[in-house]
Amino acid sequence: MNREEIIDALSQYFAVKELVCDHTYAKHGEKSWQFLDTDWLHCLLVIRRDILKVPMTCNHSTAHQRGLRCNMCELVRSKTSNYLSAHLLGKGGDFSVKGMNAGKARQEIMLKAHLLPCPIRLEGGVSWLHFDVLPQYGVTEKVYVFHV
Prior knowledge:
This protein is of the alpha+beta class. The protein is 32% helix and 14% strand. The chain has helices at 3-10, 16-19, 22-28, 38-52, 74-77, 102-111, and strands at residues 56-57, 92-97, 120-123, 129-132, 143-146.
């Protein structure tokens, strides 16, 4: 699939406003798709449509920094040391999965990793589903679980 096809298919499940911070959406609106990595979008589509097959929520009424974060976001501004994150690069996001806890969602993704178009990282030991496509040098697994 090319980028346009991925975004078109993904639009059935997510509005771009759900995947970027409020600052980004306020400034760029629907053009905010441009800041999201193609591999991440493709993996999000496969995870939502083909692996988990249930609604997933990124940003919502009380959480606005779970997808792309910009330099104006409080989670970024409050850092006192070097902060590099898949969220800043448009390569990662945090999700809630309808009817499924994060551990179960991670397990389902690992069981069907062969469906993913590229390797991903999953954050383990947290109550949300974080996945990203940040390259992990020296790791050959299709799904790599990391802990912060």
